[in-house]
Write the structure tokens for this entry.
Amino acid sequence: MYLHRGLLLHHLSTQFFNVMMKVARIAIINLAVFSGIIASIEISLNIAWYFEHRNKNLPPVGSDEVRTGQIIPFPWEQVFHPGVGHSHQKSEFIANLNTMNLIHDNISATEVFKGQDNPTSEFRILTLGGSTTDPLGTSVSGYRGTWVHHLFEGIAKSNSSRYIVDNAGNGGSTSSNELLRLITKLHSNHYDLIISFNGINEIYFVDDYHYKDKENILASQMLMQAMQQGIIKGLNGKTYFSPLGPLRNTKLFFMLSNVRSKLSEVKAKFAGRSQQFTGLSKQEKDMVVYGANIWSKNIDIMNATSLAMNAKYLAVLQPTLGLGGNYCTTLRKECMLTDSRYIAKMNYLYSLLRRHCSSKDYCLDISSDRDLTSSDSLYTDPRHPNSKGNMKIAGLMRERVVQSLDD
């Protein structure tokens, strides 16, 4: 009897083991198939991206031949930098049509503007900002289409002075990153004027939960993203890792995000234009206030630092699409910007930034310009003005910049 029961148990355990092995094999096969599908999609998207964005090897043109509105695709690759959080590689400046003939390090590119061959005076300027200032602006504003180039090319033509401009703008930078760049550049350079063109990227404080930790205030978004990948190591070999980290960097993730965004746009259209500005949660509002206050303190510190080094400082609150109630108010066409949540967050952020800016004599607010907040024709995408838009921005800044240099 006991022998029979033992044989039965052995038989059942063998069957159970065989079943589990089959389940494991099926699971492994399914995982392999799923991984193969994901890999195939990712490879296909990378191939498609390459053919869409590959450099056409267009010849550089002179600074007086600005190609208004033309987009020259070029990939940007940023690297970790011990002093400023993240920066460009030097090789990027050599390959980029905007900067290949300019003097550069991996933090800035220097361009010289002179009205005459024998200038009567010389000014040294440092410009700071995010992607809307970045000298590698070919994929945003076209050849030499940044506001920096338009501004100082126009100023130089109107007088006999020489303007040496170090453009340290870098895509993805917040005012915190600008502060670090400013201090780094001041260690080896003297400037007559320092300009910060910023505001829009403080929205990162709402979108990235890592910024809730006050120790991360000065960290770059690139560093925050790296923490999710387990790239950054802390004490005792501890790494930061998010299970979704690797997936977030795939083109499949971005494609799915775009699908989700499109579905939200369709939903917003059915809801009607009156529902465009949706309410924000208390947590979102608190983080917007947090980010705006950090911006205010950062530009105060940049102003104080500049004055301590005998340089003048000008913070410029930049314009962007969707501010105010004039954007996309008609049903006549498709609008470039349709993300109602983004619009709501950006408007709330700017309501606070404008209040801070109005209390500082070194802050110029150009964020309310009707054209630059409502006209798609001045933008390459919802966040980046094209060459024509940057020319408009340069016009709004010109008088104040000239005044700052002349005083």
About this structure: The chain has 13 helices and 13 strands. The two ends are 107 Å apart (CA to CA). Residues 2-53 form the longest helix (52 residues). The chain has two domains: 1-50, 78-406.
